[in-house]
Every structure is written in C-alpha cells, then in structure tokens.
Design goal:
Rossmann fold, 4 domains, 8-stranded mixed β-sheet, 7-stranded mixed β-sheet, lipid metabolism, oxidoreductase, Enoyl-CoA_hydra/iso, 3-hydroxyacyl-CoA dehydrogenase, lipid degradation
Length: 779
C-alpha cells in the first residue's frame, strides 16, 4: 500500500505565484482548490481568487495548457471554505511573505488537515523550520518548503527544502512527485536564507551592478558580456532583473542582508543607491514598462545611470569579441575571454572570480553538492554553465593560483579538492563529492530518466552518419535520433529513416523517434530544396518530395510499432512524422504546427491527408462533414501552432489517446514503455482505409472563405493562391460528388500541389526570405 498519494491539491494564496502554481497543478491533471481572503463584496465572497484566476488566464506566456483548464479550479476563501482543506492530499501555502501571518496560517492548517497530508510553503526566503515550528510533531514531519520559480509552468527548477523535522520518506516522495507529476527538476536545499538559486543568482546580479552604476560599462555592454557568449542565459544580467522585477530583487537583497552576518560577501547585497532610486521611481522592470530597459516607439532604450534618462543602445565592438565568437565551445570561449587582455578580460575575470569563490564558499552551508548549485542556476536562471562548470572551464588549479596571487583566500572546498589530487568537478559522467572527497556518478536529473547521451555511453550506434543515428535501447526497441542543426529534416535524414525501418524490421520489435535537442524538428531543410531549384535540378526536388512522403507514410505501415516522442517546436515535417506514428508520447511543452503555408508550400508529407482523415473520423451518423473540413482548412491555412501538447490534441495533431508527459527527462523512457506495450499487445500494422471527400461542394465553400478573407485584407494575394492548393487537396480535387477515395489518391494530390508551389517564384521568394530573415514574407 502506498504511504502517500497526491490527487487533490489546495493552494492557499491566489497572487501571481499562487494562481500560476494552481494552474500548473491543473495542467498536470490534479484536482485543485484555490483559496484567498474573503472579499468585502457580499455577492462575490470569492472575488479575490476569481479575479486572480482571470488575470492568470490572460498572462503571456500562458500558465494554463488550455484556457478551459481555468474552470477546473475550485475557488473559495479562507473564511467560508477552510474546511475544504480536509480533502487535500497536499496543501501548498503561497500567502504574503510575513512570518507572523504564515505561522498563523500553519496553526489553522494544523487543526484541520487529515493525518499524512503534506504541507509546504512556497516562501522564497523565510526559514522553513521557523514557519512550522509552533505546529504539532505530526504536522512538522509532513512539512517542508517547495520553492517554485516564475513562471511555474515553464521554469524547470523546484527547490525542495526539508527541515530537521521533515520525515525522509516525505522528502523523497515529494521529490518523485514533483519530478514525475509536475515535471520539475528538483534540487534539495538546506534551510538557509534564499536557499540556492536566489542566493547565488541575486549575488551575481548584485555583484555586477557596481560595474554599471559606478564603472565604465553600459547596461547593454554588461548584458552582452554576461549573456550566451560567456555561458549565462540569453537574458543575461539586467534583462533578467527586469523580467524578475527590480522591486523583487531589491526586496530579496534587503531581506537577505541581515540574515547572513557570517557571509564574507554580505556587503554585496547592500545594493547601490542609484538602484534604490530606480525602484522608488517605479522603474521596476518589464511589468512597469521601464527598468534597465524601456521599449518606446518600438525601440528598446537603455537607462543612463547618471541622468536616469533612457537613451538608444550602443554596440560594443572589440577585436576580442570577434575572436571569441569564432569559438563554438562555450567552455573554451569563456576561458579565452577571461584570459584576454584589456577591460573586457579584466571585467569578466573579476566577475567570474567573485562568482566562483562565492559558490565554493557556500558549500556545505546551502548544500553539500556542487552539482545541486549548478543545476539550480541552469534550471532556475537558465544559465548554460553553472559556477562549478565554470571552475572546470577556467581550470580549478590555475584559477586557484590566480586567486592566491591576487592576495585573496582560496575557498577551503578548492584547497581540499586539490589536496585530494582531484583537479576538476566533472569528469566522464562523475562529479566531485566534497563529503567523501571523491568522484561519484552524476545522479539522473529525474529518477528513471533515459537520454540519447546515456545510450551513446553504453553502446556504439547501430547506424550513424552526419544527420542521424539508430541506437539500441535494449528490450527489442530501437531509437532513431535526429542530429542535424535545428533538427531540420534534410535528404540524408529522410533517406536514413527509410533505410532504418528495414533494419528495425529485421533486428528489433519497435522504434522510437526522438533526441536530446531543444526542439524536435523545424521541418524540411528549405536550403536543400532552394539550392536544387536554383540549380535547375528539378529531378532532385521531385525526388525529395516523393521520398519525404514515402518515408512519413511508411511509419504507419511498418510491421512494428513506431512511437514518436516530440518536444519543443515540432513543425512541418516533424508533425507529419508524428501524424503517421502509431503512438505519440509528447512533452507537455510541445508546440506543434503545419506551418508550410508561411513559406509558400503545403503539407505534403501526408499531413494534409491525415488531418482530413482525422476530421472525417469524428463524424457521427448523418452529421455534416463540411464544418470539420473547414476546421482543418483553417488549421493548415492559418499555420496554427499549438501552445501546449493539450492544445495539439484540439488541433488534431495528436490523438485523444496520445500520451502527454510532464517531465522532458522522462520522455524517451515513457515512449519506450509505450512501444513495448504495443508489442506485448500483439501489434499488427493497420490496413490502408479510404477517406471520404466532398469534391466541388467543399472546394466552393473553402474558396468562398478565402474570397472573404482576401477582400478583408486578412490574407495576401499569394496566401490565397497557396491556400487554394490546400483546399484542392482537402476537397479531393474537383470531383462532382462526395465519395470515398483511397489514401494514395490524396497523397498524390499533395505531391502535385507542393511541386506546383515549388515551381512558383513567389514560393522561392518566401523560402529565401525565411532563410535570411527567420520570419515569413507576406507577398
């Protein structure tokens, strides 16, 4: 019998974080109660929570995977509905950051909660143990911190903070629950001020501020130097602060300062007066429209710290930066920049030195694990490299020597590590463990994870070239990996997939299609098609179209189950591979769309045909098929992209029976299991079935839609032309009456339509524009 099981969650406090945590719990399929203060309005006692949910539903990016999910949350207030907490398996407190109010709330919860109900606080800095100290022993064993990062749906990090009283099985259960059900990357923290990510992250921002307010670097210079070029996030330093809110940064630093008297860098958290002035004047970042940056008349201006006025940005130019950009490896690029001569090198060395020393000196105070600090910074602040990866990049020994030469004290962690004969924090799948002064295996990001990188360490790929690899996942399941840049589906990849199907047929029982990249697929390789057409190599263009469609359709009729496991952007041909797989296991954050029309093409890898089939399969009895066809036409014609895997089901890109996985690290493992389930159920490939089309009736209706949109200037002349080609396929051509046609008939229409597009100069103009500018041309 399971000791703990969470189905019903009560979120207390419906502010920005509370409403979004509630939304994410609903996304994960949990039953959610959301309570807040009782309103003074006698007709609307739950007005506070209701209005918070309404605000959340309009946020961008959206906290809800589907707008309709908002209605699944049961709202109430602390006065009338506190009894609802008796039903909760997990109570998550997200009320105001004041100790006395939190303690009062915990006392109320203690009186009403059922035994074994887990209670957590989402405080960002108050001591967890103090919040629950006055409660019963049974309460305290089930109490801990769960610190979500904003926005909770999208940020991977969740800091779990057990107290000395928290039962170890409660901590372990919450870790697994938050990984598997909520899809989070969990880092266990000590109950210390601001835990891990904010302690190190706010230090980093605070430590850099004086270089802007009192130094000779502009804000945009610092953001360039502390952005992706040196292994931080795209938002760098000041854009990150603007996103988080300068008032929040100020609040965290002010609270932190008195609570860390023994911190050797305590004074760093005493932020510059000019920064305080910005906050007092309402210049608090994106939510106010002005912070370090302000968008005015379409231009992002930057603040001048002397005049406190906004001005145009300037571009920092230096030969060092030009040389650095030629270095693809981030670790090597960081080392080059830090060791370069001049003010850029000096600035980056000073900033890295302070960060590296600070992180090293926080062990074992905030955690005993360098890996936990690195993961917290990667998952909570989107840094590419955590502090201890930076130690490795710069060289632990040489960095320690440089610190010593400057007359500073090398952190004890580093001295002990070097004395033990260990010269890097990471090495061949192992990480340094300070407690034992040895290297230990790097634990998985989520329990049970399976990644392509793991498969590579275990075995040499069965097949491999520059574009793909076929891996043995054991148990009779193979994995097909895309290796191309941006996961574009070029000729070599498509042909390799077709050949791999034959290999799987003979040597395996099932196939999974996925990889470890950031996005599943950006669609066909436009450059290949454009170059072939420009070189008058029409035969190659025709072959590419035929091969792509033949390969996508072959996924369905292979004599073994094929499971696609998409994630991130899944566009064009990537969607078609999913449409023709037997099963899709999609990450919650999968953004699917047949977007071909934007580059003057139509979906011709079976996508138009398959969406039509799925629409016609929805028909019941004598229902009129035309509204269903119109919906497919709008989906393709407007290049609709789902904002979640749940919405991909609504658009027909996923079946209702397809699986949605919250944690990306568990995606391939789940896909493998689903493939084996199909094998064990005695899988047989489906027979080809006919599809009902309406012919001229549907074609006329779709052309009328296009006429109205064109007259209203909603679509351009060429949008109309390309959309008419889509309409022709969806209608089944200009057949005089409704009839059943074979799938192969519609697939032929797809091929003819896309080849017609590729012979049109306006399509070539769109393709070229997309390749050069990264956005569609509206010609």
């Amino acid at each position: 019998m399971k000791k703990y099981s969470i189905r019903k969650v009560a979120v207390l406090g419906s502010g920005v974080m509370g409403s979004q945590i509630a939304a994410h719990c609903v996304n994960a399929g949990l039953d959610v109660i959301l309570l807040d203060l009782k309103s003074d309005d006698p007709d609307r006692p739950n007005k506070t929570a209701e209005e918070s949910l309404q605000k959340a539903s309009k946020m961008n990016p959206a906290p809800f995977a589907k707008p309709a999910f908002k209605d699944r949350i049961q709202v109430g207030n602390f006065e009338d509905d506190f009894d609802l907490l008796k039903e909760a398996d997990w109570i998550c407190e997200v009320i105001v950051e004041k100790m006395d109010i939190k303690k009062d709330m915990m006392a109320r919860i203690d009186k009403i909660r059922k035994p074994k109900t887990i209670v957590s606080s989402n405080t960002s800095g108050l001591p967890i143990s103090e919040i629950g100290e006055d409660c019963s022993e049974e309460f305290k064993t089930h109490f801990l911190g769960t610190h979500f990062f904003n926005p909770p749906r999208y940020m991977k990090l969740l800091e779990v903070i057990p107290t000395d009283s928290t039962a170890s099985d409660v901590s372990q259960y919450m870790r697994r629950f938050c990984e598997q059900v909520l899809g989070k990357g969990v880092v266990i923290c000590n109950d210390t001020p601001n835990f891990i990510a904010n302690r190190v992250g706010i230090f980093s921002i605070a430590n850099i501020m004086p270089y802007f307010f009192y130094g000779d670097f502009r804000a945009e210079d610092i953001d360039l130097l502390t952005g992706t070029i040196s292994g931080y996030s795209k938002a760098a330093t000041f854009r990150t602060a603007d996103m988080a809110g300068l008032d929040v940064t100020n609040h965290v630093a002010k609270n932190l300062y008195p609570s860390i008297p023994d911190d050797e860098m305590q004074e760093t958290f005493n932020l510059p007066d000019k920064f305080e002035e910005m906050v007092e004047n309402g210049m608090i970042g994106n939510k106010a429209g002005k912070g370090f940056y302000s968008k005015q008349d379409g231009e992002y201006l930057v603040i001048n710290p002397e005049s406190m006025e906004y001005e145009s940005q300037q571009t920092l130019e230096d030969p060092v930066l030009e040389d650095a950009r030629k270095i693809k490896d981030t670790s090597k690029r960081l080392k080059f920049l830090v060791n370069s001569d001049g003010k850029i090198g000096d600035f980056l060395w000073n900033v890295q030195r302070d960060l590296l020393m600070y992180a090293a000196n926080r062990i074992p105070e905030i955690t005993d694990s360098p890996l936990s600090i690195d993961r917290a910074m990667q998952w909570g602040f989107n840094w590419e490299m955590g502090p201890f990866e930076r130690w490795d990049a710069l060289g632990v020994k040489e960095t320690a020597e440089r610190i010593q030469k400057e007359g500073k004290e090398v952190p004890p962690l580093i001295t002990e590590m070097l004395d033990a004969g260990i010269h890097s924090f990471y090495d061949d799948g192992e990480v340094y463990h300070p407690g034992s002064k040895t290297m230990v295996d790097i634990p998985p990001e989520a329990e049970g994870e399976l990644k392509v990188s793991h498969l590579r360490k275990q075995n040499v790929p069965v097949i491999e070239n520059d574009s793909v690899a076929l891996h043995d996942m054991e148990d009779g399941v193979a994995l097909f990996e895309f290796k191309t840049k941006n996961a574009t589906l070029g000729g070599e990849l498509v042909q390799s997939l077709y050949k791999a199907l034959d290999k799987v047929k003979h040597d395996f029982q099932a196939l999974v299609i996925s990889h470890d990249g950031d996005n599943f697929a950006f669609g066909a390789n436009l450059k290949e098609a454009l170059v072939a057409k420009q070189n008058d190599d029409w035969d190659s263009v025709v072959d590419a179209v035929n091969n792509f469609q033949k390969t996508a359709v072959a996924l369905r009729y292979a004599p073994f189950p094929v499971v696609a496991a998409p994630f991130g952007k899944t566009l064009g041909g990537g969607v078609e591979f999913c449409l023709y797989s037997d099963k899709v296991v999609a990450h919650h954050e999968t953004y699917m769309g047949l977007v071909e029309i934007g580059v003057g093409l139509i979906p011709a890898g079976g996508g138009t045909t398959e969406l039509l089939r799925r629409a016609m399969n929805k028909l019941e009895g004598e229902a009129d098929p035309l509204p269903f066809i119109r919906e497919v036409f709008k989906t393709i014609g407007m290049a609709k992209v789902s904002e979640s895997a749940h919405l991909a089901k609504e658009l027909g890109y996923l079946r209702p029976s397809d699986t949605i996985v919250m944690n990306r690290d568990l995606l391939i493992k789940t896909a493998k299991q689903e493939a084996l389930n199909l094998v064990h159920a005695g899988y047989r490939s489906p027979a080809e079935t006919s599809i009902k089309v309406l012919g001229k009736t549907a074609l006329a209706a779709m052309k009328l839609m296009l006429h109205v949109m064109h007259e209203g200037n909603y679509i351009t002349d060429y949008d109309k032309v390309v959309a008419e080609r889509v309409a022709y396929v969806l209608a089944g051509g200009d057949l005089s009456e409704a009839q059943e046609v074979p799938e192969s008939y519609l697939l032929k229409l797809e091929r003819e339509a896309i080849l017609e597009c590729l012979q049109d100069e306006r399509t070539l103009d769109r393709m070229e524009h997309m390749l050069k500018k990264g956005k569609p041309l509206r010609n």
